[in-house]
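Example with several molecule types.
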Amino acid sequence: MNLRREMKTFLRTVIGRAYPRVIGMRREKSWMLFEVLLPLLQVAAFVYIYQAIGAPPEFTGFVVLGGAMTAYWMNVLWSMASQLYWEKETGNLELYIIAPTSRMAILIGMAAGGIMTTTIRAVGVLTLGVLIFRVPMEVTDVPALVGVFLLTLVALYGLGMLLASLFLLWGRQAWHLANLLQEPVFLVSGFYFPVRALGFLVALGASIVPITLGLDAMRQLLFPQMMEGFRFLPVGTQLGALAVQAVVFLFLAHRALRYFEDRARREGRLTLRGL
Amino acid sequence: MTARVRGKETWRSLRVAVWLGWQVESNWTDPFLFAVYSVVRPVAGALILVFMYLVVARGGLENPLFPYVFVGNAFYIYVGAVLMGISWVVIDDREHYGMLKYMYVAPLNILTYLLGRGVAQTAIATIATAITLLFGVGVLGIRIPPGQVDWGLLAVALVLGLSALAFMGLLLAGATLLTARHNFFIGQAVAGALYLLSGVVFPLDVLPPALQWVGKALPVTYWLEALRRALLGEGGNEALRAIPTGHLLPILAGSTLALAVVSILFFRWAEGVAHCRGLLDMQTMY
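Resulting structure tokens for the full complex:
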């Protein structure tokens, strides 16, 4: 197959895999309502905690921003990392494997569709949160903010693609592991408080999840005064680290997908269901 | 069928459901990893609150609100576990394993079966709650002197509250039977609403007045208030201070009883509708 044709197939696969995610959202509009309102319930509870203990209003902003970013982490866990497990359970994985296309294109399509739909949810949570709780934001550097956000997403979904490859080997463990990666990651990545509060070394370790760096950088750019006392790393350093993570995770995902697919094929796990 | 045969069938359904629930929950890994898994999530959830406090209080946990929050959050572990533990069975058995239709073919009591499946989750939640509380007392210095705990109130409130949650789970199971592609949200939405409205992690008084009234209509609010009074000596909710402790249990018992009647009637109705519409073996592939 020549390169042009390969590229065309790759691109068509990306679009083809992203399509059901985007169109699914249009067909089940009520999902959007649930997926905006559910995180908002949690956000509201945490906002009221901060209000009850007399925290400065910027902390409401920390929670609202963290609450919006949970949508991406949940999407990475349940619609990227666990996706190949779901496909195995529903009998689609074999079809992916025999399809004359790149598995990386399938993962990128999943990520692209996921980013599009999740962004609408995150924007919904952020907008409602800011309006309902009157969050005082002060955007100091728009290009840096956009850059941090985009790099966070690329690195995060690169991690999701890597996890998807790892989860290929597993049965029900995949489900439980995704469950396990919720609250502990919300804790160590500082979704609801500045991650610096955990100490520098813990924050450094938690930076393996790109949202840790992304959230801290975005908070610095949106709440500069309040974050002066809680800054983990300078924004420039975090931007650099996110760029490195994006490249490394995508490369590792590519390698891991090949390795784990081959291993799952040899161990006969690609078609095992209900285990 | 005689009452004796029905009783035997109910007991067998419960016993088998408890065993099955435990296997489904635990046999995917080795016991050590399962123990770690069962504990890490709730402790992490509690620690999020601890660090939220530490960040604002700059290192101090002396705020009188902290024990209130910690105890509420520890017992809230039961809410998610029991509600989802029971309602999730419908999704798992119908959509994932394709077994729900066989449950209806088999000689078992489906209500007892569903409640039994929730027992495994309740057991895991009990361990997680106990560890979270021990962590609070041992590491964070929350004062719960055993000599000052009202053990009787604690035990009765715990039993009544768990029963109320189980019947709420049954209510959700009935709703889940009738829904497609939304069943994942039902349990989460109810658990999330209870987290916000029942004064789990902040006093009801902080809520806008309209939401306070909603909170006052929920049995979970009184359950948590009773548990806090049993463990900490006071409930912490200004909005509920006027209710004497002696009145809390009758309120909780009454609301549990009402919930039981409504849940069973609703589940039976939902079951009938599901039967007529052919939903008992529905596969939505979601």
